[in-house]
């Protein structure tokens, strides 16, 4: 929306001398030439960790789930914890690109591409756990409702796990399409400035032969709008369904109606934190400070402190409702959650998720790169503990005290978790090297309104004053801007 | 804009360095009654459609119907499976327990809608891996905006007129581009 | 070419290609070349062309067959099928489990000639169809890898010929020279064996027979000798007693004849709307026993005070009876005085027993019973029990004079392991001609020169006379697996009698048993019917009883002196239910069976009370502090287990562990405490070390009352009431929330869904908490019937035991003397099963007969069902426990630090061809990565229905019995069709007020229901919350 924007509002694209070709250059440069040393080191570390994770997967399948710390009472622990954690992280990408698009938040353009990539990779990591936590993973195809020769034999549509299958696969597909449809024009950009024929060829294939005619752009906009419209309820549904894994069960501490909203809030929370982490790394490595500005950090941190507080309220609500229910199993479950043998987990969760983000009420800290990074890490840790607390403390002491037990992880549990982090960063680093980490076309589309240079230009008169007649005085201009907006929205 | 029935190979390409200039130019040219073949830009230029006289796309309508297909498919398949083909007692619930089927139905709706739309989008935009497009000017994906005019069947007079009008709109460059045949390799 | 049979390869070794549709494909007619060729020649009018075709085909087939790699099949079809064996149908044979004096009459289930399960024999008047854990597990011993497969001389495999020549020549020489020959056996209750031994003695006059019980009952026997002039155990009638007082006698767990006593005991403990009386049971004991846990009133005292308590009661009764009192014990306990009052009130209908092995104490007990006039009412001399005959003095003198023994033959005992100075005895064995009649590897066999490998009792003929005139029989249920021979037969051979033992026994029956009975008039009838029934009741013997209670005072004094040496801390040696004296400590089923009281497996440990917090373990991490125990000259280290109800100032440790020679290292955890028998265990030293060790406890201590957000609240998982309350209101204590269960069902049990109807059968099970004594026989029976895997100590420590049926134990009341309730917990087969909803592949779903069923080969192992099961009865195959299928054939187990491979566990799981012979063919062996759980013995239900269908009649109630139900000595478990309103189950569910389901409030509609426990006492002890870690 290259409409007028008040000069008071902070520019989203920094730099005195930016123009369209400089934007292209800054962003595409990272995909050309040899990668920076920082990238090399990061990639080496990430891929090594990823390999260890793969080994742990193999080991689990070879020996049996017994290599994990699970027991007859706690049949899920780190596996599903990691699953929910990754899925939650994934959601932020969709939210940034879809919801903020619907809300016409221009600041999203700086980060949506990377955020969406993060979604894809996070969902890949998440997907590993429900698959490999199966005792007989080689029979995993049973979960698909496919016509078979075993007589009428179908899946159970009452099972939240089956809903997960559909939710996660749909979510992955849609995110991928959304992401890629956005990538095509940018690939075309890379193609057209490519030096070698091979590179030209590869990026042309990636760009599906995009040229950017008016009609293409028209359909492009329509598609992104509808996909955004679809992704928004989708992302809500996905985490709602994930929360159903627990909410629809009978286990005290799981069987809670607050879970869907609470999980979604948690997802945004952890997701934004992860985006924060990644963006801070990316802008450092590829010095994109002009496009991922402190303004971006601040907006992100605002969302973090909001969702963090929502999650905090949810924690308190749970306790209150448990007490209010008067139902002894519920009452014990939450007492045990906060003060039982796993209280250390509960405390870590509370500190990282509820208390630490509150410092973002201070503008100074909101805009500080260091604190943003530190706290984004805190939040990621805290959100992991949240899932662990929900899953393990509810399971390890449920109805019959006779079967109460304690869960202790093994090195394989840890290895799998760390491994997925490795896989995630490997993929992300590869992406950052070969794909435009910032949506070039979208950044350009806000350039004339929100770029520092553009803003400075606006103050001096221009030849086609009939289009920009407002630029002489802001009062009238504001009016004209509204008028302008209206026109474009109609079309 | 009118999609040329016969494949044009000769074009005049006018280049601009700002979307606002482009918009103004289009208005001016069309007021002179000159037919614009196409407009190329590095990003979606807002308000270009009416000025170019582009009809609104019907992609979203298609999306709606794709979604509808998803909904019906999901419900009918689940109903067939759990009510007729494979009715088993699960947790004392009735064979057809609608509330439990809502999540899957919703997911399939979204899946069908998005996959369907993207497919349509690619087909209508003539986008597929390995497709070799006609590139009028490489800079149109970087920083320049282009207006193209098909001139295969134009008389030199018309061509000059186009060039002069382009000049009036303050085009950066005015080039003539000729494609040897419809699918020439990337240059 | 019509009606042709094809074969490939050699007949009999591979399957026939059954392309014909007659019943041959069911393998009932076994492939025989003759048969096939015949059928060719008869059914095909073989022209030249046909012949050539046939020739051509067979040659090609043979070539192909020869060229393909044929799988080696371990099963060989019958050449001539025994006519009673129909593949797929079980045959049952009566037999008797006899282990020393331990006797249980069993019915052995065989499939295709393999014994796979021992169940109670309902026709037995002694054990009355009940079982105990060891009897059920005895089948596994048949296939034990510890079994001797050949006779051995000096540890080397040998032949019977060699053994016979060596032994008979040497024996002849020894007896010729007048050298001393000793036959050392456990208690022999078999008349025919006794005769065989007698015959052996006539051949070798210098031979003497000494009987010896590892857990000695000499005290009791000698006391009876003293007071009645008869060295035998009277016929205790727990069913006739209205008041039972036991001084540390675990008569339902380990004492003399637990199954019989349990069955009798429960007879007048069962209450119903019709019968509202029940006996009262008081237990005075140190170490908490299974019996004590079932008592209405338990008085915990230190081991030495058990003696004092007896003296006190004696004096109290004596005063009332106006007889001379004995020495004052100086011990006072007002509960005991109250007990004396009750006893006196119930005189003539009371029964006092003691587990002590002290003659004087037992004399006093006899005195008490005598004063109460219990002889002739609750204690009879009509049919004394022969189940314990050991003689400590004889054994002691034997051990002392081993030097003088030239030859020793040992059977049904393991002296090297179970003697106080077994080691010394072991050395002595090396110096004489030592012959051990043994079935499985053990310490004594290891030390003996000759090992005469004996049969397992299921391969054996035999008889047993547990009680005077009641004679049970053993018959072979499988031909000998190995080159073994029953020791009776060996004795006969060496005695120069060459009739096989079965004929010898038959002859003995004709000559001796026949005249003793009047039921049958021909010996053929007698034999056939007895072998079928498993028991014959002969005339009661005529015994001369000469009561003599003269010197009670002397007894009391010496009894008091026997504890004079007691110190501050005392040690009690006790028998674990399931492990007993240690003769079965190489049986994985029993090792993995959680002890009813401590719920610990695989090893022994130091048990103490909960009065001293410094011994407490962390209930979550299962880390138990290790203590160093010093008893006189001996000392050992064991982890400490704090058991509520054990008095302060004492520790207890179980017999039967610390075996050094057995099939597998895994069977040898723990410490052997037999060597403490000679030490003064009444004065020991116990110091905590700073080490900790894990124990395989399947149930950690937890209360039913917990502090929650709403303060302390109690979970009504078990419901119990008092007899008085029950008399007033049969639904007493049967409440859910504020409502009585009845009202709750009316008012609260509402549902959104119409729910399913179960038109055909609707199976339900009812478990009477009042009858369940927690003996865990059902647990082993379930393991046996359903091929439940043994997972080993390490896996149990990691809480991965596989038992489908477990027995939960809950406490009420003061933690130093709590009330115990046992609750068998198995899949509740909920009609609204939470597990079913969550399975993505519908691998677990509900049958139209109300059974929650598992499709193992559909299960993908998400374990969601296990999480969502409120009863936590679902079990997951973490590893390939049963060697069903996996990439990795080794059975691994891991610690957190290192991965260690327990190859040995191959032999305790169902992984060896020999052990696999035990697998019940009707039940799938579960592969790695699937969930399993109680199926309500679906295979039995199916079999029962088919049987009824075949017989063309309506399925009768009681025709189908589950494995657990069959094993239960107290009939606590009822199973049946709820739709048959005449069935026991339907009647109970519809009309009995004690019926309840566990956590019904979550609306799972369980099909397994329980009945309130009724205690014969004034009030259920108030709950006092112990503020300490153990109960966190």
Description:
Chain A has helices spanning 20-29, 37-63, 78-102, 112-132, 160-192, 197-206, 214-247, 259-285, 294-325, 328-339, 343-355, 363-366, 369-396, 411-434, 440-450, 452-459, 474-490. Chain A has 491 residues and is mostly helical. In chain A, helix 4 (112-132) packs antiparallel against helix 5 (160-192) and helix 8 (259-285) runs antiparallel to helix 9 (294-325). Mean pLDDT of chain A is 82; it is low at 458-491. Helices cover 45% and strands 12% of the residues of chain B. With 1032 residues, chain C is an alpha/beta fold. In chain C, the strands form 15 sheets. A 7-stranded mixed beta sheet of chain C has the order 5-4-16-15-14-6-7, with helices on both faces. Chain C has a 6-stranded mixed beta sheet with strand order 20-25-22-24-23-26, with no helix packed on it. A 4-stranded parallel beta sheet of chain C has the order 11-10-9-12. The N and C termini of chain C lie far apart (80 Å). Mean pLDDT of chain C is 84; it is low at 7-44, 886-907 and 1025-1032. At the A-B interface, helix 1, helix 5, helix 6, helix 7 and helix 15 of A face helix 1, strand 2, helix 2, helix 3 and helix 4 of B.
Give a short summary of the structure.
Chain A has helices at 20-29, 37-63, 78-102, 112-132, 160-192, 197-206, 214-247, 259-285, 294-325, 328-339, 343-355, 363-366, 369-396, 411-434, 440-450, 452-459, 474-490. Chain A is an all-alpha fold and 491 residues long.
What general outline of chain B do the C-alpha atoms trace?
elongated
Shape of chain A: globular
Q: SS-based structural class of chain A?
A: mainly alpha
Low-confidence stretches of chain A: 458-491
User: What low-confidence regions of chain B span 5 or more consecutive residues with pLDDT below 50?
Assistant: 1-5
> What is the count of DSSP helices of chain B, taking H or I runs of 4+ residues?
5
Distance between the termini of chain A: 12 Å
Please give the share of residues in helix of chain B: 40-55%
- Strand/helix succession of chain B: EHEHHHEHE
Radius of gyration of chain A: 25 Å
Number of strands of chain B: 4
Q: Report how far apart the termini of chain B are.
A: 27 Å
């Amino acid at each position: 929306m290259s409409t007028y924007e008040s000069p008071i509002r902070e520019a989203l694209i920094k730099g005195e001398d930016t123009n369209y070709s400089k934007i292209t250059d800054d962003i595409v440069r990272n995909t050309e030439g040899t990668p920076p040393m920082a990238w090399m080191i990061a990639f080496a570390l990430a891929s090594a960790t990823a390999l260890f994770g793969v080994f742990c997967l193999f080991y689990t399948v070879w020996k049996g789930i017994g290599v994990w710390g699970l027991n007859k009472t706690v049949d899920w622990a780190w596996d599903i914890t990691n699953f929910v954690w990754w899925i939650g992280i994934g959601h932020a990408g969709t939210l940034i690109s879809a919801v903020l698009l619907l809300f016409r938040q221009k600041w999203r353009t700086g980060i949506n591409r990377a955020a969406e990539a993060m979604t894809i990779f996070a969902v890949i990591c998440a997907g590993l756990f429900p698959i490999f936590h199966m005792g007989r993973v080689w029979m995993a195809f049973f979960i698909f409702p496919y016509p078979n020769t075993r007589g009428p034999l179908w899946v159970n549509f009452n099972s939240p796990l089956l809903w997960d299958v559909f939710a996660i696969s749909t979510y992955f597909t849609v995110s991928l399409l959304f992401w890629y449809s956005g990538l095509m024009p940018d690939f075309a950009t890379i193609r057209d400035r490519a030096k070698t024929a091979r590179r030209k060829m590869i990026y042309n294939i990636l760009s599906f032969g995009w040229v950017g005619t008016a009609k293409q752009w028209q359909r492009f906009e329509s598609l992104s709008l509808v996909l955004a419209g679809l992704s928004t309820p989708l992302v809500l549904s996905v985490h709602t369904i994930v929360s159903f894994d627990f909410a629809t069960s009978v286990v005290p501490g799981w069987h809670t109606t607050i879970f869907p909203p609470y999980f979604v809030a948690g997802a945004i929370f952890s997701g934004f934190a992860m985006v924060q982490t990644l963006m801070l790394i990316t802008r450092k490595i590829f010095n994109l400070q002009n496009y991922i500005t402190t303004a971006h950090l601040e907006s992100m941190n605002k969302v973090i402190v909001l969702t963090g507080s929502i999650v905090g309220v949810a924690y308190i609500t749970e306790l209150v409702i448990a007490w209010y229910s008067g139902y002894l199993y519920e009452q014990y479950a939450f007492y045990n959650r906060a003060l039982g043998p796993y209280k250390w987990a509960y405390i870590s969760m509370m500190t990282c998720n509820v208390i630490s983000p509150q410092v973002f009420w201070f503008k100074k800290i909101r805009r500080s790169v260091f604190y943003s990074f530190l706290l984004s890490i805190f939040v990621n840790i805290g959100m992991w503990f949240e899932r662990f607390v929900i899953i393990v403390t509810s399971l390890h002491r449920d109805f019959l005290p006779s079967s109460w037990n304690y869960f202790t992880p093994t090195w394989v549990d840890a290895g799998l978790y760390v491994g997925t982090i490795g896989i995630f960063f490997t993929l992300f680093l590869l992406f950052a090297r070969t794909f435009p980490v910032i949506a070039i076309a979208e950044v350009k589309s806000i350039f004339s309104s929100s770029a520092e240079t553009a803003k400075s230009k606006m103050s001096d008169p221009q030849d086609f004053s009939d289009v920009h007649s407002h630029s002489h005085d802001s009062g009238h201009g504001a009016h004209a801007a509204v008028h302008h907006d209206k026109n474009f929205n109609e079309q | 804009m009118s999609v040329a029935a016969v494949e044009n190979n000769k074009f005049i390409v006018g280049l601009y360095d700002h979307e606002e200039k482009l918009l103004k130019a289009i208005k001016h040219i069309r007021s002179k009654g000159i037919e614009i073949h196409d407009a190329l830009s590095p990003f979606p230029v807002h308000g270009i459609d009416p000025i170019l006289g582009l009809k609104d796309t019907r992609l979203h309508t298609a999306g709606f119907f794709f979604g509808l297909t998803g909904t019906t498919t999901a419900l009918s398949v689940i109903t067939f499976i759990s009510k007729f083909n494979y009715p088993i007692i699960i947790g004392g619930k009735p064979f057809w327990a609608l509330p439990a089927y809502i999540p899957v139905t919703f997911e399939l709706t979204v899946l069908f809608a998005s996959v369907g739309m993207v497919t349509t989008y690619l087909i209508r935009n003539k986008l597929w891996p390995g497709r070799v497009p006609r590139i009028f000017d490489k800079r149109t994906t970087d920083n320049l905006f282009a207006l193209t005019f098909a001139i295969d069947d134009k008389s030199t007079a018309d061509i000059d007129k186009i060039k002069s009008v382009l000049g009036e709109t303050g085009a950066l460059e005015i080039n003539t581009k000729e494609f040897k045949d419809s699918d020439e390799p990337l240059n | 070419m019509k009606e042709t049979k094809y074969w490939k390869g050699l007949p009999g070794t591979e399957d026939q290609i059954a392309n014909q549709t007659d019943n041959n494909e069911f393998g009932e007619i076994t492939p025989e070349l003759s048969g096939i060729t015949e059928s060719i020649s008869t059914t095909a009018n073989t022209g030249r062309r046909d012949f050539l075709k046939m020739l051509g085909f067979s040659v090609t087939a043979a070539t192909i067959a020869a060229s393909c790699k044929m799988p080696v099949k371990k099963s060989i079809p019958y050449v001539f099928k025994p006519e009673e064996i129909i593949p797929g149908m079980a045959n049952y044979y009566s037999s008797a489990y006899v282990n020393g004096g331990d006797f249980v009459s069993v019915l052995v289930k065989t499939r295709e000639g393999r014994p796979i399960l021992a169940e109670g024999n309902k026709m037995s008047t002694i054990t009355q169809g009940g079982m105990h854990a060891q009897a059920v597990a005895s089948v596994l011993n048949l296939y034990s890898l510890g079994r001797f497969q050949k006779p051995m001389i000096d540890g080397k495999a040998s032949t019977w010929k060699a053994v016979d020549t060596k032994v008979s020549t040497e024996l002849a020489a020894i007896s010729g020279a007048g050298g001393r020959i000793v036959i050392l056996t456990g208690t022999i209750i078999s008349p025919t064996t006794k005769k065989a031994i007698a015959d052996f003695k006539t051949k070798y006059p210098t031979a003497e027979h000494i009987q010896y019980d590892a857990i000695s009952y000499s005290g009791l026997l000698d006391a009876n000798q003293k007071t009645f002039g008869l060295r035998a155990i009277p016929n205790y009638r727990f069913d006739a007693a209205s008041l039972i007082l036991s001084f540390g006698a675990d008569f339902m767990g380990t004492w003399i004849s637990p199954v019989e006593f349990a069955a009798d005991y429960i007879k007048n403990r069962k209450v119903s709307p019709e019968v509202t009386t029940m006996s009262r049971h008081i237990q005075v004991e140190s170490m908490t026993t299974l019996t004590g846990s079932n008592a209405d009133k338990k008085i915990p005292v230190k081991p030495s005070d058990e003696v004092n308590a007896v003296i006190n009661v004696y004096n109290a009764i004596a005063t009332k009876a106006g007889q001379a009192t004995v020495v004052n014990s100086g011990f006072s306990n007002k509960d005991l005085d109250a007990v004396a009052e009750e006893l006196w009130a119930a005189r003539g209908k009371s029964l006092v027993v003691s587990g002590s092995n002290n003659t004087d104490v037992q004399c006093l007990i006899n005195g008490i019973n005598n004063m109460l006039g219990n002889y002739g009412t609750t204690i009879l001399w009509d049919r004394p029990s022969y189940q314990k005959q050991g003689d400590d003095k004889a054994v002691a003198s034997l051990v002392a004079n081993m030097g003088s023994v030239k030859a020793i033959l040992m059977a049904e005992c393991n002296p090297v392991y179970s003697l106080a100075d077994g080691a010394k005895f072991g050395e002595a064995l090396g110096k004489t001609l030592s012959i051990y009649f043994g079935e499985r590897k053990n310490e004594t066999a290891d030390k003996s020169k000759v090992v005469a490998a004996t049969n397992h009792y299921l391969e054996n003929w035999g008889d047993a006379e547990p009680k005077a005139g009641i004679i049970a029989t053993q018959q072979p249920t499988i031909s000998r697996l190995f080159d073994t021979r029953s020791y009776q037969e060996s004795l006969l051979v060496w005695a120069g009698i060459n009739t096989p033992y079965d004929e010898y026994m038959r002859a003995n029956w004709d000559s001796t048993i026949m005249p003793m009975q009047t039921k049958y008039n021909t010996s053929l009838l007698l034999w056939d019917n007895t072998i079928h029934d498993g028991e014959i009741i002969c005339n009661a013997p005529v015994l001369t009883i000469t009561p003599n209670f003269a010197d009670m005072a002397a007894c009391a004094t010496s009894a008091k002196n026997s504890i004079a040496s007691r110190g501050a801390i005392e040690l009690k040696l006790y028998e674990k239910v399931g492990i007993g004296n240690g003769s079965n400590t190489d049986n994985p089923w029993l090792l993995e069976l959680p002890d009813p009281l401590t719920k610990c497996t695989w090893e022994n440990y130091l048990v103490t009370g909960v009065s001293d917090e410094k011994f407490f373990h962390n209930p979550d991490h299962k880390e138990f502090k290790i203590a160093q125990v010093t008893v006189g000259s001996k000392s050992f280290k064991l982890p400490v287990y704090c058991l509520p109800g054990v008095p302060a100032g004492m520790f207890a440790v179980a017999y039967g562990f610390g075996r050094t020679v057995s099939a597998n290292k895994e069977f040898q955890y723990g410490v052997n405490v037999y060597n403490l028998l000679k030490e003064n265990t009444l004065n020991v030293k116990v110091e905590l070390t700073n080490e900790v060790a894990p124990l395989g406890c399947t149930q950690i201590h937890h209360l039913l009352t917990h502090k929650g957000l709403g303060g302390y609240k109690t979970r009504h998982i078990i419901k119990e009431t008092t007899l008085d309350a029950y008399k007033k209101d049969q639904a007493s204590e049967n409440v859910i929330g504020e409502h009585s269960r009845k009202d709750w069902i009316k008012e609260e049990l509402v549902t959104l869904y119409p729910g399913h109807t179960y038109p055909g059968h609707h199976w339900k099970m009812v478990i009477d908490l009042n009858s369940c004594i927690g003996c865990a026989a059902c647990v082993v029976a379930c393991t046996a019937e359903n091929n439940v895997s043994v997972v080993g100590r390490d896996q149990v420590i990691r809480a991965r035991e596989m038992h489908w049926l477990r027995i939960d134990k809950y406490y009420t009341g003061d933690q130093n003397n709590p009330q115990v309730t046992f609750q068998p917990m198995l899949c509740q087969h909920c009609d609204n099963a939470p597990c079913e909803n969550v399975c993505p592949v519908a691998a677990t779903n509900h049958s139209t007969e109300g059974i929650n069923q598992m499709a193992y080969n559909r299960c993908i192992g998400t374990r969601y069902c296990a999480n969502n099961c409120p009863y936590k009865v679902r079990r997951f195959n973490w590893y390939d426990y049963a060697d069903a299928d996996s990439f990795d054939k080794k059975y691994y187990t891991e610690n957190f630090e290192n991965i260690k491979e327990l190859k040995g566990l191959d032999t305790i799981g169902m992984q060896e061809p020999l052990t696999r012979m035990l697998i019940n063919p009707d039940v799938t062996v579960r592969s790695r990565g699937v969930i399993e759980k109680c199926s309500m013995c679906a295979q039995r239900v199916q079999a029962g229905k088919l049987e009824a269908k075949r017989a063309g009649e309506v399925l009768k109630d009681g025709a189908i019995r589950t494995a657990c139900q069959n094993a239960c000595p107290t009939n606590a478990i009822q199973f049946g069709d709820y739709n048959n309103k005449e069935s026991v189950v339907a009647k109970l569910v519809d009309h009995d007020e004690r019926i309840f389901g566990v956590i019904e409030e979550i609306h799972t509609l369980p099909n397994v229901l329980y009945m309130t426990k009724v205690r014969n006492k004034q009030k259920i002890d108030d709950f006092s919350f112990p503020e300490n870690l153990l109960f966190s």
